[in-house]
Amino acid sequence: MRRLGFLFRPQWLALFVVVIAFAYLCFTVLAPWQLGKNTRTSRENNQIASSLNTEPVPLTSVLPHQDSSAPDAQWRRLTATGHYRPEAQVLVRLRTDDGDPSYEVLTPFAVDGGPTVLVNRGYIKAGEGVPPFAAPPPGTVTITGRLRDAEPVMSGKEPFKQDGITQVYSISSTQIAQLTGVPLTSEYLQLVEGQPGGLGVIALPHLDAGPFLSYGIQWIAFGIVAPIGLGYFVVAEMRQRRLEKAQSGSSTETSGGPDPDEPAAPLTAEEKMADRYGRRR
After folding, report:
1. 115-126 confidence digits (pLDDT tens)
2. What is the 3-state secondary structure (H, E, C) of the chain?
3. What is the mean pLDDT of residues 12-40?
4. C-beta separation of 119 from 84 below 8 A
5. CA angle, 119 as apex, 118 and 122 as ends, to 5°?
6. How far, in Å, are 77, 200, 202 from residue 194 at the CA level?
7. Where does the record place Basic and acidic residues bias (predicted)?
């Protein structure tokens, strides 16, 4: 225990706390965060790839009621017949198209014999104020779009009204339903190319898993290496202390005895006589 006494010094205790806290964060926060993103991205890529080879189905088969939800049908192409409700139309701010600032136009769509769903009609380029854009067609139309999850509300960004139209910062069906007074399903539709009421077509994301898996593995590796590195420094410190102790002991022994290479001091007359009589005895 005396050899390990240095571990209780403040600097070593602080190092232990930092390493343990770092390893804990690696295993409980950082690695799960990246691995979770990898899982979501892989799931989304699989859903997009599957939707490309799957024929559209009626929206009412996936969302039959107003409170229906279909998290496993994301990116699935759905068809719906009904009419737009342009009086409850809103714009989404802070969007980009090929790097250019833009808005996205959201209009509720009442499905015949089904729920009212929010439809993302596509993007318009941003300009000074709200640029003019085409109104949705009146009457009954049939549209095809991809089912999408609603987005969380952006904190600190309140909706406002400008040029007679409400503007929001995220596609939140719950928030937009509260603003417009029109009940909406939790998911929304993103129009594909060539649809009635469609504007600039929003491109599909690239089917790239991204670096999240490798980042997650790296955080796990860091969480393993950190305690190992700490153990290495502890062992190295113990070895250094043993070496210094051994060198100190050797130096003490050498300084405590006569040097064999140094000539002996001459004996006095009394020492010679005592030595002579002692030998005779």
Report:
1. 999 999 999 998
2. CHHHHHHHCHHHHHHHHHHHHHHHHHHHHHHHHHHHHHHHHHHHHHHHHHHHCCCCEEHHHCCCCCCCCCHHHCCCEEEEEEEECHHHCEEEEEEEECCEEEEEEEEEEEECCCCEEEEEEEEEECECECCCCCCCCCCCEEEEEEEECCCCCCCCCCCEEECCEEEECCCCHHHHHHHHCCCCCCCEEEECCCCCCCCECCCCCCCCCCCHHHHHHHHHHHHHHHHHHHHHHHHHHHHHHHHHHHHHHHHHHHHHCCCCCCCCCCCCHHHHHHHHHHHHC
3. 86
4. yes
5. 145
6. 14, 10, 12
7. 269-281
pLDDT at 98: 78
Predicted confidence at residue 37, as pLDDT, reads 79
What are the structure tokens assigned to 112, written together? 């015949």
What are the extents of the domains in the chain? 8-43+210-241, 57-191
Tokens representing residue 247 in the block: 């060198």
Do the beta carbons of residue 189 and residue 143 sit within 8 Å? yes
Strand 57-58 and strand 77-84: the pairing is: parallel
* pTM of the shown model: 0.66
For residue 251, give both structure tokens: 């130096």
Amino acid at position 10, single letter? P
Query: Rounded mean pLDDT of 25-43?
Result: 83
Q: Which two tokens stand for residue 147?
A: 């089912």
Token pair, residue 43, equals: 């799931």
Residue 14: the pLDDT is: 85
Beta-carbon contacts of residue 126 (< 8 Å; ≥ 6 apart) = 100, 101, 102, 103
Residue pair 152/171 in contact (Cβ under 8 Å)? The answer is no
Q: Are 143 and 119 in contact (CB under 8 A)?
A: yes
Cα distance between residue 206 and residue 138, in whole Å: 34
The mean pLDDT value for 221-229 works out to: 90
